[in-house]
Amino acid sequence: MSAERDILEYLAEHPDACGTIEDIVEWWILEASIRRATNEAKAAVERLVASGVVCADKLSDGKTYYSMNRENLNQILSPDGRRFRSGSREIDGDCGS
């Protein structure tokens, strides 16, 4: 997304906003970048949980915490154990929760 679009979205949501270039970068564009990254991360984590590579545990504080499913570690590491494999596939297994 372009900086122009980020700025316009911020102004649409905050019509009384004004600021310096530093403010625009630090607050307006950063806010849009964080929102976009949050949406991308959520979608990625949902796919990884669905494939069994990542575990999701909702704790008593109401938040969901994510971690690696160690039972499927071999599915995400290359044979040398150092790199993540690219691509995804369905993986069965539970997180022991």
Describe what you observe in this structure:
The protein has 2 domains: about 1-50; about 55-85, no CATH class. A hairpin with a 5-residue loop joins strand 1 (about 55-60) and strand 2. The protein has helices at about 5-15, 20-50, 75, and strands at about 55-60, 65-70. The chain has a two-stranded antiparallel ribbon with strand order 1-2. It contains 3 helices and 2 strands, in the order H-H-E-E-H. It starts with a helix and ends in a 21-residue tail after the last helix. By secondary structure, it is mostly helical. The relative contact order is 0.12.
Largest sheet: 2 strands, antiparallel
Extended strand count? 2
Which range best describes the helical content: under 10%, 10-25%, 25-40%, 40-55%, 55-70% or over 70%?
A: 40-55%
Structural class: mainly alpha
The backbone outline, from C-alpha atoms, is: elongated
Element string (H = helix, E = strand): HHEEH
Number of domains: 2
Q: Which parts are unreliable, with pLDDT below 50 for 5 consecutive residues or more?
A: 88-94
Spatial strand arrangement across the major sheet:
1-2
Q: How much strand?
A: 5-15%
Query: Total helix count?
Result: 3
What gyration radius follows from the Cα positions, in whole Å? 19 Å
Distance between the termini: 39 Å
Summarize model confidence as the mean pLDDT: 83
